[in-house]
Specification:
The protein is mainly beta and 250 residues long. The protein contains three helices and 18 strands. It has an 18-stranded mixed β-sheet that branches. The longest helix has 24 residues, at 8-31.
């Protein structure tokens, strides 16, 4: 066993220091020196819409400079989206109120700094495109989720994605998860009959893939035996420059 493996706890501490430092630098560069006196007063905003006549695939397009994004699903065919946004009052005074748009089957939010909680319904199919510069992204695909391609990207921060086998995949879906500095954790219970592939890459960090019964293509690439022949597939690509990757597939 290598020295690297024996010093896992030390490596984890180093990663934690790097990530915390990077987040602090990112926050300082964004808020300036006033960040140290950042008011704790916050304002909450809520946006929601029903499905209506929408039948095509809906894209969730989120762009956030600083903050966290959490996405989950409920088994409600009438709900198109419910988005709750928490904004520091200092940010609100400087940048104005956030707004959510729905145009050409795209749910859009582009804002500076906030905490964003999103609930999507089961009445339409969704693709997800979420970008944060500094912050975390959490996606939970449970009963009621109908999803195709998912793209999650953060420059500094972590990504967590959990998928239950009750979630419904649309077509041959690709989950593309990318973190500059930060860890990525993926737990997927692949629905029966769907071919699966997971491939990971990290510049500085460890990769742990657990995929019982899958075929190991390389040390960081696993596929199900039916990936090349299945009528429907899920391809998961995970990348991080600095940080660890943990992927569990069943």
């Amino acid at each position: 066993m290598s020295n690297y493996q024996r010093n896992t706890s030390m490596v984890a501490c180093i990663f934690a220091v790097i990530i915390i430092g990077a987040i602090a630098v990112g926050a300082l560069s964004y808020f300036g020196t006033s960040w140290f006196n950042w008011s704790s007063a916050k304002t909450d905003f809520s946006f929601d819409a029903e499905v209506g006549a929408t039948t095509d695939t809906v894209t969730l397009d989120i762009n956030l400079d600083v903050g966290s994004v959490s996405i989950t699903f409920v088994d409600d065919a009438t709900l198109l989206y419910e988005i709750d946004i928490e904004v520091q009052n200092t940010t609100l005074e400087r940048d104005g109120a956030p707004s959510v748009t729905f145009t050409s089957n795209t749910i859009g939010l582009d804002y500076t700094a906030a905490g964003v909680n999103i609930t999507l319904g089961s009445g339409v199919n969704y693709t997800l495109d979420v970008i944060t510069s500094t912050g975390s992204i959490d996606v939970t695909l449970v009963d009621g989720a109908h999803v195709g391609d998912i793209s999650l990207s953060t420059t500094t921060g972590g990504i967590d994605l959990v998928m239950a086998d009750s979630a419904i995949l649309i077509g041959n879906a690709t989950f593309d998860l990318s973190a500059g500095t930060g860890g990525v954790t993926v737990v997927v219970d692949l629905p029966t009959g769907i071919g699966g592939s997971v491939e990971c890459a990290t510049g500085t960090g460890s990769v742990s893939i657990t995929a019982a019964g899958w075929t190991q293509i390389t040390s960081n690439h696993y596929e199900t035996s039916n990936y090349d022949t299945a009528s429907q597939t899920l391809t998961v690509i995970i990348e991080t420059n600095v940080g660890g990757i943990s992927a569990i597939f069943t």
